[in-house]
Every structure is written in structure tokens, then in C-alpha cells.
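Title: Comparing notes on inverse folding

I've been comparing how different people in this forum approach sequence design from structure. To keep things fair, I'm posting one structure and asking everyone to reply with a full sequence. Here's the target:
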């Protein structure tokens, strides 16, 4: 059998490969045009203080409203952006969009809380990446205290020297820094001090496992972070039980579908006004 279908197998394999390649290629081509076609949209997800139950921050999560495929999630197009140089343009777009949003909410008297922006590790490889962010912030005249960068452990490890001076400069200006997906990489706790991390985000997978082993990993992260004066937020909170345990363990903030899904500007505005 193998003998007779050998050729066909090869054909199938090669067609699948081509299709995948073609799809990536088309996505990249479309993403390039998405900027001036205004297809990128910012969604926001609130972060709540565990004790006061108030909204104390927002996370900006980008979506792509593709003219043909509809809403595409970042898990699908961020890798495409990272493989091409579009990630630089995308990061600038998101940073600018968030700064403009803050200014608009400021003007309309909507409750102002810090907004965090996810930054891909690759962005930090750009020369003078900190100047780029600094310039946008200055041009729009946004209070740096209202901005937070969400970085991942791999950003800290790759290209450390290039990264540290920029991050410390922005921190001095008032921007906050949180370590996203904490516990999934290899970062040493020493990094929390070295990079002056304000908040660690417990990764969703630890939140999911919270009820197993009495949440030993989550508790461990919370206690160590507090020992170092670093706040802790848990992401992916989907149940009341998880919320109860997290507040019992002293986790400072929570974020997840239980409290609110990421939503567009107008929905968030209503939520923020309600809390004002
Ligand atoms: P992340 O920064 O860890 O963001 C959290 C992701 O978990 C978001 O998915 C959010 O919608 C989702 N989430 C929040 N609460 C829950 C929950 O209770 N249950 C479940 N199952 N999921 C929840 P999203 O928006 O699809 O983003 C995925 C990832 O894409 C983000 O992970 C982030 O790494 C990246 N990303 C998003 N926006 C941007 C951006 O503007 N720039 C860059 N470079 N990356 C971004
Ligand atoms: Mg994040
Ligand atoms: Mg995360
Ligand atoms: Mg995550």
C-alpha cells in the first residue's frame, strides 16, 4: 500500500505546507494594510482590587477586525507580526492608541486608571525602543503614571543590557512594569528587583489549578512577591471559588471572565462611569 500511495502522500503533505505558508503570507500582507484601513481595534479588560472590588486598572488587548475573516485574536496574528518586522509598527500603534484613549477619557471625565500594554520581546531588540515610547507619550502628553508595560520573562533574559537601561529610564518617568505569564519561564526572583518590577501576573494555568494542592504554586508566588514588595495579580479567574482562594491568599488584584471579558472602548466606558 505504502508503495502505491507514496507519491500521493507526498502531494498531500506538500499541499498542506503550501496552504499553511500561503495563509501566513496572506495574513502578513493584510496586516500590513490593516493599519491605514483602521482594522485594528483595542479591547480592554478590567483588573479588580481583590478587597475593594473596584476597578484599579485595565489591560489593553488588541484585536484585528479583518475585512474577510472577521475578528481575529492576537494569538493568531501577533506571531505573524513578530516573524515580520510588523511588530514594531504594531507596538507603536497600540501604545499610541492607549495614550489617545487615556486623553479622551480624561476629557470626558471617565474614571482614569492605569492601562497596561503587552510588549513583545522582539520590540526590545529595536535600537532606542525607549525613545520611541517616550516620544509618543510626550507628543500626546499623557501622564506616565497611567501607563504600564506588560513584559514577559523572555524579554528579561534576551538582550538584557539593551533592555535594562530603557526600562529603568521609563520607570523613572513613572511608567509601571508588570511581569506577564509569571511562573511559565525560568526567571529568577532576582530579576524582580533588578528590573524593578511592580507587579507579577500569575499565569492562567496556575489560576486553573488553584483548587489542586491548595493552590501551592499561587501561594508560593504571592508570598515571595510580597516579601520583595511586589504586587500580585491573578489572570484567568473564572469561578467564585478561585476568587475566594485568591483573596484568602492575599493576592492583590484579579482579572478574568468571572468579572469581565475584554470589551471595546464604549462598553468599558460604561463600566468605568459606573464605578466613578
Ligand atoms: P496575555 O497578556 O496573557 O492576556 C491574557 C489573555 O487571556 C487574553 O487573551 C484574555 O482575553 C484572556 N483571558 C482573560 N481572562 C480570561 C479568563 O478568565 N479565561 C480565559 N480562558 N482567558 C482569559 P487575548 O486577548 O486573546 O490575548 C492573548 C495574548 O496575546 C496575550 O496574553 C498577549 O500575550 C498577546 N497580546 C494581546 N494584545 C497584544 C498587544 O497589543 N501586543 C502584543 N505584543 N501582544 C498582545
Ligand atoms: Mg498581558
Ligand atoms: Mg498574561
Ligand atoms: Mg497569558
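Reply #1:
Here's my take.
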Amino acid at each position: 500500500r505504502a508503495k502505491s500511495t507514496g507519491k500521493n502522500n507526498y502531494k498531500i503533505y506538500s499541499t498542506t505546507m503550501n496552504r499553511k505558508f500561503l495563509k501566513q503570507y496572506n495574513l502578513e500582507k493584510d496586516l500590513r494594510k490593516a493599519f491605514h484601513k483602521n482594522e485594528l481595534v483595542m479591547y480592554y479588560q478590567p483588573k479588580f482590587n481583590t478587597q475593594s472590588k473596584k476597578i484599579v486598572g485595565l489591560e489593553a488587548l488588541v484585536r484585528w477586525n479583518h475585512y474577510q475573516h472577521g475578528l481575529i485574536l492576537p494569538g493568531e496574528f501577533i506571531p505573524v507580526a513578530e516573524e515580520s518586522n510588523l511588530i514594531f509598527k504594531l507596538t507603536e500603534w497600540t501604545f499610541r492608541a492607549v495614550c489617545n484613549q487615556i486623553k479622551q477619557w480624561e476629557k470626558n471625565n471617565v474614571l482614569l486608571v492605569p492601562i497596561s500594554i503587552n510588549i513583545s520581546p522582539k520590540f526590545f531588540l529595536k535600537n532606542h525602543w525607549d525613545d520611541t515610547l517616550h516620544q509618543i507619550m510626550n507628543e500626546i502628553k499623557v501622564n506616565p503614571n497611567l501607563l504600564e508595560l506588560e513584559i514577559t520573562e523572555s524579554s528579561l533574559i534576551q538582550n538584557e543590557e539593551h533592555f535594562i537601561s530603557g526600562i529603568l529610564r521609563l520607570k523613572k518617568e513613572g511608567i509601571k512594569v508588570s511581569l506577564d505569564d509569571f511562573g511559565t519561564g525560568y526567571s529568577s526572583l532576582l530579576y524582580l528587583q533588578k528590573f524593578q518590577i511592580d507587579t507579577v501576573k500569575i499565569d492562567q494555568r496556575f489560576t486553573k489549578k488553584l483548587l489542586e494542592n491548595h493552590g501551592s504554586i499561587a501561594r508560593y508566588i504571592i508570598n515571595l512577591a510580597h516579601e520583595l514588595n511586589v504586587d500580585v495579580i491573578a489572570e484567568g479567574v473564572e469561578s467564585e471559588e478561585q476568587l475566594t482562594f485568591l483573596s484568602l491568599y492575599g493576592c492583590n488584584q484579579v482579572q478574568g471572565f468571572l468579572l469581565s471579558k475584554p470589551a471595546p472602548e464604549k462598553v468599558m466606558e460604561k463600566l468605568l462611569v459606573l464605578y466613578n
